[in-house]
Design brief:
mainly alpha
C-alpha cells in the first residue's frame, strides 16, 4: 500500500511575519478565512500518480 499526500494549494494569505505562540490562534483564524490559489498547471508526477490511483474519499 502506498499513501500519497497532496497539498491543497497555496493560500492567498501573504502575512508572513514572525509571531508568538499567543498570536498563533489569531493567525490560524486569518489563514482559514483566506481562499486557496486555483492552479491551472500541476506537476507531471502528481497528474501521473492521480491517473493510476484508486482514490478512496473518507
Amino acid at each position: 500500500m502506498e499513501i500519497t499526500l497532496i497539498r491543497h494549494g497555496k493560500s492567498l494569505l501573504t502575512e508572513n511575519d514572525r509571531i508568538t505562540s499567543f498570536a498563533f490562534t489569531s493567525w490560524v483564524e486569518k489563514y482559514d478565512k483566506q481562499v486557496v490559489c486555483e492552479e491551472t498547471n500541476f506537476p507531471c508526477e502528481t497528474v501521473a500518480r492521480i491517473a493510476k490511483t484508486n482514490i478512496m474519499m473518507i
